[in-house]
Design goal:
Strand content: 15-25%
Largest sheet: 7 strands, mixed
Bound molecules: nicotinamide-adenine-dinucleotide
Number of strands: 16
Helix content: 40-55%
Radius of gyration: 26 Å
Length: about 475
Amino acid sequence: IHPLLFERILLTKRLSTMAYNALVSKQREYFLSGATSSLKARKENLNKLKQLINENTDELCNAVYRDLRRDPRATVNLEIGNAIVEIDYMLSNLASWMEPTRVQKTHLTALDTPLVYKDPKGVVLIISPWNYPIAMILLPLIPAVAAGNTVIIKPSEISAHTAKAFEDIIPKYFNEEMMAVVSGGIPESTALLKERFDHILYTGCPPVAKVIMEAASKHLTPVTLELGGKCPVVVEDDADIETSAKRIVWGKWLNNGQTCLAPDYIMVSQKTKPRLLDAMRKVLVDFYTDEPKSSKDYSRIISERHFDRLVSLLDKTKGNHAVELGVPDREDLFIPPTILDVTREDVFMEDEIFGPILPVMTVSGVNDAIAYIKAGEKPLAAYIFTRSEDKVKKFLTETSSGAVTVNDVIMHLTVDTLPFGGVGNSGMGRYRGKYGFDTFTHEKAVLKRPFFGESLMAVRYPPMTDSKSAQ
Ligand code: NAD
């Protein structure tokens, strides 16, 4: 590297570090002034956010089209609609959630009032990924604002068009003391993480989550880590195979398989496998025609690097290509819908696939499938298709995952009264609805005491006597 260029990089880094420090200080000062914490301020900010989304839906969805070639109408359904619902949900519950809650007393505090106060945390950092580049910013942003915090957003540099759209739009609605976007990639993110935040919510992959957690530990900043993993699907012989196939295909090929909750692999018996493969092929053709490359509903891989990773796995797999509707095209970042019949040793059974390739593995039954899931890392979601309540019960009690949807995939995410988050390798912490409000709120224990009632407390005062210690 040329010395002058090196010097320039160092200077840019120093300048951005200074700018981030100034930005965080400005937000902290604003937060400490109390400007964000009243019910009125929180509602105003949420309404402004709603206005921002409504007035810029086209611009945001067109940016996602340029990043992922996803039909803007699908983006409205997948990323805009749920954000609006979330804001409305916050607006209608905020007043009661903010109220201090009374808790049960002990006999020693019979005359007192124990309460839990709901304090905002302060300056929140949201670091988001590229796969749902609107929702992965808005869904954590909404509860962070509802909880009375200021927010710095670091969008993914990989979904560059959407990142730029947010960078342009947010300053039109919010001053940077309240909400700011920091663009850039790993160097910017690394510099930003040197600052002290009051909460960090990161969405992405486990290796980077460790970097985030390490940086947060320097300031003892709490983190929420929303990660991915291999989400298993078990299809039992007693399931409605046609309906199962339709639901699995929808969830797998949505956003070209680049969904944290996408079915990663299927486990099915030898007996049911041919029917399931046949049904999934039919659904794929129904959804995307037999030439998905020309279908406007079929999205693309985000980048050449991600394309190359998937194609190199396709080169290495020993699985049988049960379904393959086209050939990969690097220029177009197109990988066809592909279903592989694989063994447990296959390369596709190692890491999260995050693409339009679905391995199907044979198991001897639900016990075998559960044992396989338990031997691996805990997934973000696990799915089972069956008519048997006993099998569902067994699956729910014997496996651990962030969530389970029975007889469908992904749909638990649409219920904002359910917590959303992982466990173990798929993450820590949760958000959505009240869980989101709680994540960005500090629950402060408060005990209010009157001046009377001293006799009740006499036991605590020295000098200690035998009769006091017996009480
Ligand atoms: P990523 O970690 O590469 O990027 C996410 C963000 O982290 C980006 O803003 C990026 O700039 C930043 N970043 C990357 N490396 C960094 C580093 N070394 N130091 C500091 N910051 C860094 O993740 P991705 O590839 O964008 O996301 C894909 C992953 O996200 C998948 O595993 C998927 O399953 C997961 N995901 C999870 C959820 C969820 O809610 N649980 C949702 C969407 C995606």
